[in-house]
Design brief:
mainly beta, 5 strands, about 190 residues, single chain, about 5% helix, 5-stranded antiparallel beta sheet
């Protein structure tokens, strides 16, 4: 037969902060070990129970800076973050997210045919600039679409190579085109790649 053990909280105070062990939070979660600064929004919690069991919470009202890798070989990994399950979310609702490095790789290696997508959306512009070549290699197909004006500009030469080239131009989307008997809607939707 087990006996009920009263919960014991340990706290070591200092004018600039506190070490808390077994602290009970407002929502009933017990923090195993907590570091609390004098500022109420500056803390680190290793939570142990409730809906945050196993969580590590960090909060600070100022800049959060991590600097490492002083003694790491330039070709080795300096920071390794692995999330075994779930998503990784980086959010800056009032600022920018910047990635800066000598090289940047973005890869989506899904384990089956339904995974492995990369999606980029913008409310305004998407600009891509390369001082070297810009290559697009799509195994199924590619499409560039705009409901307004489209431009392809090549200052020296423009090469178009295909087994068949279909062209369509007409003033009305509902009428057949001048060089093709389909209308604009059928032309843009009825293809092998839609």
């Amino acid at each position: 037969m087990t006996t009920q053990v009263d919960h014991v909280q340990v706290k070591k105070d200092h004018p600039f902060g506190a070490l808390e062990i077994g602290q009970i939070c407002a929502d009933g979660v017990v923090t195993g070990v907590g570091l609390q600064s004098r500022h109420s929004l500056h803390y680190i919690h290793l939570d142990s129970t409730g809906n945050r069991a196993g969580w590590t919470l960090m909060r600070n009202p100022g800049v959060f800076e991590i600097k490492c890798g002083d003694n790491v070989d330039g070709k080795s990994i300096g920071v390794d973050i692995e999330c075994l399950n779930g998503d990784i979310v980086l959010s800056a609702p009032n600022g920018r997210i910047r990635l800066s490095a000598k090289d940047i790789d973005i890869m989506a290696n899904g384990e089956d045919d339904s995974r492995g997508h990369i999606k980029i959306e913008a409310n305004q512009d998407v600009k891509i600039k390369a001082d070297g070549a810009f290559d697009v290699d799509a195994k199924v197909g590619y499409r560039i679409y705009t409901p307004n004006v489209g431009r392809i500009i090549a200052n020296t030469q423009l090469h178009t190579i295909s087994n068949f080239i279909r062209g369509l131009t007409c003033a009305s989307a509902s009428l057949p085109g001048k060089t093709d008997l389909t209308n604009v809607l059928d032309f843009t939707t009825n293809s092998l790649y839609t």
